Each structure stands twice: as C-alpha cells, then as structure tokens.
Amino acid sequence: MFADFLKGLLATDPAPLPDVDARLALGALLVRLARADGDYQDVEVQRIDRILSKRYGLSDAETTALRSDCETLETEAPDTVRFTRAIKDSVAYEDRRAVISAMWEIVLADGERDAEENSLMRMVAPMLGVTDQDSNAARIAVTASE
C-alpha cells in the first residue's frame, strides 16, 4: 500500500514531502514510539488522535483513518534510522521540532517514561536533526502542560 511512498521517501535525494505524505510519515513515527515498549495503550492511541486532529484540523473520522494508515505505514517502514533520516531530508526543521514535541506527549501519555521510549527519543531527535536543546525544551513544555 505504501511502497511508492516509501520508495520516494528513501530515495537518494528525496523531494520535500507533500502535506499528505508528511502527515503519514510523522504520524508513523508517533505510532512507532507508542509501540516501542511493546504495550500500545489506548491512552497512547487517544493522544496520537488528539495530536493528529489538532495539528491537521481533522474530524474524528479523518483522524481515525489517518492514524490507521500511520499504523500500517509504521509496520511497513524500514528501520527507524533510515526512516527518520529520510524524514529529516524532506521535512522542514520547524515541523520536525513539532514532531519531537508530539513524541514527548506520547512518551508521557501513560505517566511512565519507559526505557525503550527514552532510548528511541535519544536516537530519533538527532536523526531528525533536532538539537538536544530543542528536544529538552519540548519535553519540559509538554511536562508543564500535563
């Protein structure tokens, strides 16, 4: 289903992603993070839905459909290293920084900072080209808003 999308994303010189494809790629990262600890909880699904709905102005049905597509894409996407590097090359910094904020929301959604989630965050932020300072600031902002 996503073969052409992934092929374009993983090309040697990927073009900037159209908004629809960026939604899929960035949403798939949220799903990957939520699944990192092997316990994909309803609270994480609800948080992903809230993030996608708010970020893209989607109805409930559109949000559910997008998350479902993101879940499918996440299972088909290559390893996190290649996937995040490809996103880095095709998504603007401001959008990648916003994704890090959303990822921190997912990490903190269940009230626990799991070792697998922390490890994935430490790996993904630099691969997306987001500085440690911006990632830490995002975590602090999310923690303060909880």
UniProtKB/TrEMBL annotation:
Residues 23-139 form the Co-chaperone DjlA N-terminal domain. It comes from the Bacteria. CDD domains: terB_like_2. Gene3D superfamilies: TerB-like. InterPro entries: DjlA_N, TerB-like. This is Putative tellurite resistance protein B-like protein. It comes from Yoonia ponticola.
